[in-house]
From TrEMBL, chains A, B:
Pfam families cross-referenced by the UniProt entry: KYNU_C
GO molecular function: kynureninase activity; pyridoxal phosphate binding
EC number(s) on file: 3.7.1.3
The species this protein was found in: Streptomyces calvus
Name of the featured protein: Kynureninase
Taxon lineage: Bacteria, Bacillati, Actinomycetota, Actinomycetes, Kitasatosporales
Amino acid sequence: MTTTPSPRTASRADGAPSALRESAARLDADDALAHLRDRFLLPEGVVHLDGNSLGPLPAAVPPALTDAVTRQWGTDLIGSWNTNGWWEAPLRVGDAVGALIGAAPGQTVAGDSTSVQLYTALSAAAALRPDRPLLVTDPGHFPTDRYLADAVAGQRGLQVRRVPPHDLAAFLGAEGHRVAVVSYSPVDFRTGELYDMEALTRAAHDAGALVLWDLCHAAGALPLRVDDLGVDLAVGCGYKFLSGGPGAPAYLYAARRHHAALETPLTGWNGHADPFGLSRDYTPAPGISRARIGTPPVLSLLALEAALTAFDGVDLTRVRAKSLSLTSFFLRCADELLTPLGFTPVTPADPDRRASQVALSHPHAHGLVRALAERGVLADMRAPDLLRFGVNALYTSHRDVLTAAAHLRDIAREGAYDPTPPAAGTVT
Amino acid sequence: MTTTPSPRTASRADGAPSALRESAARLDADDALAHLRDRFLLPEGVVHLDGNSLGPLPAAVPPALTDAVTRQWGTDLIGSWNTNGWWEAPLRVGDAVGALIGAAPGQTVAGDSTSVQLYTALSAAAALRPDRPLLVTDPGHFPTDRYLADAVAGQRGLQVRRVPPHDLAAFLGAEGHRVAVVSYSPVDFRTGELYDMEALTRAAHDAGALVLWDLCHAAGALPLRVDDLGVDLAVGCGYKFLSGGPGAPAYLYAARRHHAALETPLTGWNGHADPFGLSRDYTPAPGISRARIGTPPVLSLLALEAALTAFDGVDLTRVRAKSLSLTSFFLRCADELLTPLGFTPVTPADPDRRASQVALSHPHAHGLVRALAERGVLADMRAPDLLRFGVNALYTSHRDVLTAAAHLRDIAREGAYDPTPPAAGTVT
């Protein structure tokens, strides 16, 4: 989230060195995914590099929502639960997300927030490994992941161990037999470092532990293979690379082999085996339906479903290749234009260790991101000193990247920003 | 939910006895709230008496959602969290609901599903009364309330006691000192019976217990006074009498006196005292903000906010008076037209004990409700044998009521319905 209304003043890279301009032009000319940008309604004059809490508006969303509101709700009314597929939407949209994370149908459900899905997944994991007292999470994990790990551990008598992914193997060597679940993200949300999901998953399994992946910063940006890797549980949001809109419903994946024993803490009626039978006791539905909770926010869910059509026919290996091309080019621009001005790239130069964002540290990150926004370049920042630039291969161009770097250089060189840190409580 | 697409074939009461027709016309002519019907986009030829999982489309919703999607999301992009008030929306919409349930501002938050809010409220109540082992709920409570009472009790070592509201005083006389929380709805969702919230709240408090009200079937239909009655906690959905749309976000009310000690199980980052500080540990926000969990489904939340404007300037005591006039008239129609055909009203005749619906029992409820829908009369059913007709004083007329009763008489008299019970798993 940024603190500034988005303006529309500039998105040109005219002031950049000609070698970079020519590289951007050549890379964009060779971009086989360039046409996908038309699937998004990007405002004129905006460079959208905010991979945080909102992607741009996919072109498929406005007509889908108009239909959902005026025809489905307004005209078909309550019959829409059946005739327009509202009741099945969490499973249908779940499968659409599943296709992007390497999950065969019937293992992913969409609805609720990432926090609720995380709580469900952490609780279910603890219940699947009742004799193991440790819950391993990343000290650098996104706050809500850490808070909910603490909450679930406290409620279930587990202990939390904060182990950086790079130290997991050593930790498991000593304590692995006591670990119930390893709860990680494949991406460090600040630095953009990409961890080795396959190796970490195997290490957890070798220790007899389950693995729970938070895919918020990965789904839609690179190929994921939750089924192939034998992942146990995964969650993720709908609003970053999936562009599902503000607060788009999240999703939960549970591998089919766990369904029969999957105990969810929030036994809402939508997850009942016979939801309309009004039976006295809770009997979980077979399959992933048992991870449903209450009635989902259908309008937001249908917006997400429409947004996901931006991936129709798109090969995620190509998305990954373009994403790496974009971040590599960003790092080159940063090297030439920004490091001389006090910016330090913290995203790994090794492409195998780089997700779909570039983070630069600078002591005035907040003011710089605001100044960028005033010029139409939307990035975001993470306290205290990180500027984050998310690239989305579906709509970001190399020219966008150069534009952002050139504006940032100009702003820093001219001191054209407010160095005051944000007030406490400001939405950043 | 109904099993049939809504059709538009008929909504006329021509075949009804003239005395009833004249009564309906007179009552409608005297209806000071009749103009409020224009705040809803009711399709031609439909009588909407389904107070279940979806109200009709409020006229304010389509333009509000178009603005939210095209301007706020599409153009203002991520800055909308600040400039368009997305971040504050759960509190702002919470206060708008609060105004309808008698809650002063700053005690109600909107977001998540009713099931999630119930889980939070039940867990918080248990934590506020840690030395008391009993959780009292209504054996006739809506399924999700029962399932979640069982879940929370199991997770926190409480025992559930299922006590009908009419038996609460006697139960508390014997066991009151052991009761942590009484979790009730003021309305029996099947029969439409209205319980005495004031007396039940006082009884719980006299025993030192907390009271948690599920207001799903009451909010927006009658004046509620949660602050005045000293209610501790309340939850409710946004999609019945509030007409907030399919799966509209639910709400949670916690009396201000409990805020400082309110422990929520789902410690998502939106409820943190400094959500953007990314601090290591969870510190709950002051006030009702601590009941926020994850990022809310903003589009669905803004649809609910727009829907609530249908109550602007509306006096809920007048809504209640008209609702009683409608249900009284429905019972009169039922008495004259339907009881001779095997229908039995199960809604109390005493207006003080009647909420805003009329329920009739009939062994072929499912087929009859389907046949009504085919004629444009939308009701719903509850297994095995109840037809439910919800009236909403904001848009229901006495003529609507008579139309429904007359069609139902015709269908029953002609046997023009399928007596086969619904298949298991059918969305009813």
